[in-house]
User: Fold this.
Amino acid sequence: MSTSTMSRPGISAPASPLKRRRSARSGGFASSFTVNALLILGCAYMVLPVVWLLFASTKNTADLYGTAAYAFGQPAFFDNVAAVLNQDGGVFLRWMANSMFYAAFGAVFGGLISVMAGYAFDKFQFRGRDSFFGIVLVGVLIPNTATVLPMYLLASVFGITNTVWAILIPVLCNPFGVYLARVYSASYVPAETLEAARVDGAGPIRSFFSLGLPMMMPGYITIALFQFVGVWNNFMLPLVMLQDQKLLPVSVGISIWQGYALPQPEFTPMVITGSLLSILPLLVAFILLQRFWKSGLTAGSVK
Assistant:
């Protein structure tokens, strides 16, 4: 008997290639099924509320409480939109304009400050750089709601409460944007390019605006988009800082209408329709800028 066919005690025969392929196929199927199931659950969690808004905004007050959640009622969408736009002399449009102004200001200028700070942390050498960046990372961990009261006290000292500056100044600081900007700077801006610019006589400011900022433009767009969404959805800061209804953003304004809905049920379709209209600028921003932020999200994945 040949040694190849003899079985040795305590040693199991190796699995055949066919069994290994079947095992790998079953393991791959289980992993793929788990990942796809989680993705479907995540998509349903995010999409179903928006779908419900679409159905609910087409209903009047009676159909809203008398029909299924994902079912159309009697066509009342345009009536609801007209009611939203005409309520209190068209204050909803004022709230939308305020939100657009606050969010655009924070996206453009707050994003630029974040990009400049991240670029400086990455490319410049100065005493305490790592310590200061550690403080920035600590700021990422602090929730925004925890800083509302201290910012209100500071705004009270400077006398800017109930003004647009109480909203505009805080949105210029975004620790998470600074962190992302440093990652983008390390990924997009080669040190050799800046060194060549210095040899040609370009200073730090000119090097940033002529070379660094154009190279980091995908990251800048991504940070600005995140900042736009964050400011647009910000609720606690304007709720605490502002008392004049003409200065309120749409998030706080709709919450005021929500408070009216319990004694006056006719406000409920207006709250729902207003919520649907309030997300349209976010959808437009994501659609128009998707080419930039998709490329920006891959920063650092390939070096």
User: Anything to note?
Assistant: Residues 1-7, 296-303 have pLDDT under 50 and may be disordered. The radius of gyration is 27 Å. DSSP finds 15 helices and no strands in the chain.
